[in-house]
Amino acid sequence: MQKIKNITIIGSGNVATHLGKYLYNAKYKIDYIYSRNIKNAKTLAKSVNADPVDDIAEVHAKSDLFLIAVSDNAIEIIAKQLNKYLGRKINVVHTSGMVSSEIFRGYFYNYGVFYPLQTFTKEREIDIKEVPFFITAGNDDFVKKLSKVAKKLSSNINIISDKERKVLHVAAVFANNFTNYMYSISKDILESEKMEFDLLYPLIKETTDKVLSGYNPKKIQTGPAVRKDYNTIKQHLKYLKKYPEYKEIYKFLTEKVTD
Amino acid sequence: MQKIKNITIIGSGNVATHLGKYLYNAKYKIDYIYSRNIKNAKTLAKSVNADPVDDIAEVHAKSDLFLIAVSDNAIEIIAKQLNKYLGRKINVVHTSGMVSSEIFRGYFYNYGVFYPLQTFTKEREIDIKEVPFFITAGNDDFVKKLSKVAKKLSSNINIISDKERKVLHVAAVFANNFTNYMYSISKDILESEKMEFDLLYPLIKETTDKVLSGYNPKKIQTGPAVRKDYNTIKQHLKYLKKYPEYKEIYKFLTEKVTD
What we know:
The structure is a homodimer. By secondary structure, chain A is of the alpha/beta class. Chain A folds into 2 domains: about 5-160, NAD(P)-binding Rossmann-like Domain (Rossmann fold); about 165-259, ProC-like, C-terminal domain (N-(1-d-carboxylethyl)-l-norvaline Dehydrogenase, domain 2, Orthogonal Bundle), CATH 1.10.1040.20. Chain A has 9 helices and 8 strands. The first copy, chain A, has an 8-stranded mixed β-sheet with strand order 3-2-1-4-5-6-7-8, with helices on both faces. In chain A, strand 2 (about 30-35), helix 2 and strand 3 (about 50-55) form a beta-alpha-beta unit. Chain A is elongated. The termini of chain A are far apart. At the A-B interface, helix 5, helix 6, helix 7, helix 8 and helix 9 of A face helix 5, helix 6, helix 7, helix 8 and helix 9 of B.
């Protein structure tokens, strides 16, 4: 397998957009941007000097890597189409935390996963150097090639199995999705009372900084739940009566923490 | 009421320790440190050049402020004792987010709350300048005096009502306690699989940084729940079978987010 120089990107969402731009900045030639929506394909293609297409039949087999950054349930559909038009010899990865690399078995000889573990927002720049990349691939040569690409983007490269990536993905739901959801509840409660959410910023910052500096979250858990301070809990629940949904969440999580 | 110069601190826990040290550094004279446990009183007293006592009868009325930083349910007990030995003329505050300032009515003429909204860990230094202080007091003169003290410590001073402080406290449970609990679950899952929690640090940092830079958490919610990606959710729940408690939490919160 020769060195990866030319890349085609399938998709135009958050991950495709971020990876496309960082790969382009790292001097990779982006051949095509495919999207079902040609307008989206054009937007991204323009910024990475690629050809936009909305039909996979128009993508030619010359790219050294086909990077599929689409929703999980579309990955196999894309794989089938790529296989149909370009055969089994192309190199293919997807970027999903959840989908096994084995979804490509039978479609291609060289397949794998190129998973950046980060929460991407389209307009927001991130420091790609700090983003952990997780590589999974069936053969060592392809692992090496993919690692080389990842190393051009980030300094945090990890070779893992499909199973390990799934564990990461579940853990990330707790650390990111549910955490963010707690922030949104907190903000909603304050703003309903005409108070500013940013009053909590120093608290939020310190909560996270502690964990990022190595404190064990289990050991630094504070608040009425872990203290089994039932009087405060009762008062909080009384206050939360006007937000039945949040009251239920408060009660549920408090029971889990006090357990 | 004269300017506050001398302070007695009732308590020797996290809040008492941090406030004691920062007040001492801000050139306040700390008269006494009271704790039921004389050893704890001595430890803190030594670092702020105060007299340690374990009997409130030994505290003299000369302090300009009595700062009660004890657990919520002990505040009124302390108030009764202070009233018994020192009368109604002393100036008294507590540091609780939850307890009304009115708990002091009938015990003292000048009473209030001096509430630093931060998560304190004994050994960990924080930037006190950034900590928001929330002042509640029955009369304007006392509010001014307390604000002056708070301003020596922090640049973020807010005058609020008892009710507003309660709202803040509830919101902080979501933003800090429950968030930290999510981190502890995340860490536990990874470490059970012999993977390192720090693989998630960049994700955790970015999740928080986004919110702290003003993104609305509700609008940047990502993950399978908000996408209603039931296939991924099903796979996550299947994986979580070996952690029944976490599976239940995942299921519960996912239903709330998809709602």
